[in-house]
């Protein structure tokens, strides 16, 4: 009691309290750091700049891997669509594709298929993405077959899904069908109703009986254009599908088909949520701390995607992965949606970036040449090794790599 009234003891208590508070604050900071570390290790957050870097690398790699873009579901339209929607594609590359496609169209006299009308849808989307008119390509109207509603759906639900996407890609007016066609004529309303009518009770869609993540995500992409429209049945259908996709997500953030985790299923879901501008960290699509983006990037390595984890380069996986990353990037940067192609090819954004890199590369090349000249003079006067530092060597290597990356522009 005396010590408490002494004054000196009271100061001691205050000091002790201060020390205790400092220790407590440090402990809380340590605990917070532990929580943050757990979150990062569970699912790394990926910046817009990093996504841009991935896309640029893939764009360059694809034009190196696929020298001759052709008509076809692999090394053809999807490759072109991805490149055009990101914007990193040369006019020469586009010309090669158009030339190869025209040869095929003429050889088939405009009849790409009598059974799979997604062939027409895919080509219409590709031509639209490169600012070409699919209603008069080499004298052929490749949109016209999509007016034949019965034929569009011969192959299953994906017929209507991609016909709807193709028609919406540039808000095309559906032409009159061939005069010899006697079936039902396509309308946007019929396509929407057909898709919704074929939705399974669990919220998914399928080509057979059991709902599949891929086809469900594709249906969501097609219906996304009308999600906020006057037809409330669209929103109801899409919301039901999103619940299905949320339930099907794996702990790594990815998706499976027939029990096998794969790139393509994951890519389609990323395209679906990007079409609706759903935040990548929306709790419905985060499992065990992993987003759909985390799940997709598990299949990525050096500008390429594999079908399954740790697999080799797969053409289809790379094309779908590229399209998905581009769709996400466009959503992130508030650009037109992946299939909303009224904006055409975004050459300007990429051209500016390439120009800046070229200037940087040119500047570094000039510096490197100066260093080399100085080194040669120094070598003549001395018997010692080159005076070029390790840093200069790294710089020279970087210049070579940068120059290589510019070749596709």
From TrEMBL:
Q: Which domain of life is it from?
A: Bacteria
- One Pfam match, given by its short name, reads Prenyltrans
UniProt keyword list: Membrane, Repeat, Transmembrane, Transmembrane helix
Per the record's keyword annotation, is Repeat included, yes or no? yes
SUPFAM superfamilies per the UniProt record, alphabetical: Terpenoid cyclases/Protein prenyltransferases
Q: Where is the composition biased (Basic and acidic residues)?
A: 388-397
UniProt keyword annotation of Transmembrane helix present: yes
Q: Which GO terms describe its molecular function?
A: catalytic activity
- For the region Disordered, what residue ranges are annotated? 358-409
Enumerate composition-biased segments (Basic residues): 366-383
Q: Where is the Prenyltransferase alpha-alpha toroid domain?
A: 185-280
Give TM regions.
20-40
This chain belongs to the protein called Prenyltransferase alpha-alpha toroid domain-containing protein
Q: Taxonomic lineage of this organism?
A: Bacteria, Bacillati, Bacillota, Clostridia, Eubacteriales
């Amino acid at each position: 009691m005396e010590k408490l009234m002494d004054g000196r003891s009271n100061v001691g208590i205050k000091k002790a309290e201060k020390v205790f508070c400092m220790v407590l604050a440090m402990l809380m900071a340590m605990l917070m750091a532990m929580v943050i570390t757990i979150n990062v290790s569970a699912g790394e957050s990926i910046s817009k700049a990093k996504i841009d870097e991935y896309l640029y690398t893939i764009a360059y790699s694809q034009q190196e891997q696929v020298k001759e873009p052709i008509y076809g579901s692999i090394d053809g339209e999807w490759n072109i669509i991805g490149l055009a929607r990101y914007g990193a594609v040369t006019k020469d590359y586009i010309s090669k594709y158009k030339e190869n496609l025209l040869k095929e169209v003429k050889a088939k006299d405009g009849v790409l298929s009598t059974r799979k009308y997604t062939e027409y849808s895919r080509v219409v989307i590709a031509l639209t993405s490169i600012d070409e008119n699919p209603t008069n390509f080499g004298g052929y109207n490749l949109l016209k077959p999509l007016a034949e509603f019965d034929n569009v759906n011969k192959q299953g639900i994906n017929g209507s899904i991609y016909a709807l996407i193709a028609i919406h890609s540039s808000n095309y007016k559906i032409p009159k069908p061939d005069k010899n066609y006697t079936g039902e004529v396509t309308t946007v309303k019929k396509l929407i109703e057909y898709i919704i009518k074929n939705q399974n009770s669990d919220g998914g869609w399928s080509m057979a009986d059991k709902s599949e993540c891929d086809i469900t995500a594709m249906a969501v992409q097609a219906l996304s254009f009308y999600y906020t429209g006057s037809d409330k049945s669209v929103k109801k259908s899409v919301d039901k599908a999103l619940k299905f996709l949320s339930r099907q997500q794996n702990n790594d953030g990815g998706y499976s088909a027939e029990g096998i985790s794969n790139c393509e299923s994951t890519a389609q879901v990323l395209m679906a949520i990007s079409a609706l501008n759903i935040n990548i960290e929306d709790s419905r699509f985060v499992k065990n701390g992993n987003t759909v983006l985390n799940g997709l990037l598990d299949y990525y390595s050096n500008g390429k995607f594999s079908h399954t984890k740790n697999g080799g380069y797969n053409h289809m996986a790379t094309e779908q992965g590229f399209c998905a990353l581009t769709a996400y990037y466009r959503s992130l940067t508030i650009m037109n949606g992946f299939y909303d192609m009224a904006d055409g090819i975004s050459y300007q954004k990429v051209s500016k970036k390439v120009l800046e890199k070229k200037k940087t590369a040119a500047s570094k090349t000039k510096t490197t040449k100066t260093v080399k000249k100085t080194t040669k003079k120094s070598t003549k006067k001395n018997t010692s090794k080159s005076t070029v530092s390790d840093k200069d060597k790294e710089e020279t290597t970087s210049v070579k790599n940068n120059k290589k990356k510019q070749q596709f522009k």
